[in-house]
Amino acid sequence: LEEANENCYGILLTENISRVLPTIRSRCQIVSFKPMSRKVIFKQLVEKDISKEIASVISILTKDMDEAMALVEDKTVIKVIELAKEIAMSLESDNKNPIVVFGEKGKFILGEPKVYHHYFLDLLITLQNDKIKYILGKKDDIVFKELMEEKEILLSQTIQINILEKIMATKSILNYNINLDLAYMKMLIEIARC
Asked: What is the DSSP string of 45-87?
């Protein structure tokens, strides 16, 4: 970049331009590409006979159609989706404790690569956002429409937001070298206290 020869070009790719040093950015011609629309991915998945719920969920996890198809076929992703749904809806029930649900059904995720943990927390965040939208009556942009319509949302908007903050705090430390089991337990205990 400092002393490039004539007709010599380098291509740098990033998903987060703010993480590129200003001195590097100043020497670059920045070209931004828009990711594939969530609606386009959803539509293409439904056209391939994927259920609307799975298509809706997968369309929030990726902006790439090839990756979307790989996620649909990944049994661990399907298990992660079910776990996120179980934990999110256990918060709305007096009969289920999210800590117990995670202990019974979520231990499999601890042995999985970090990408599945990102999916899991992204799905929990999406579910909390869906609950808040549902409470506010903004039902058009809900990802888990069927789940929101079949289950009763009991907690107030304030509590839903507090839960969302706890999940997002856990998501923010996920890239560090942490004990995932302890991080999840801390998050679930804090959520249960809400």
From this structure: HHHTT--HHHHHHHHHH-S-HHHHHHHHH-HHHHHHHHHHHHH
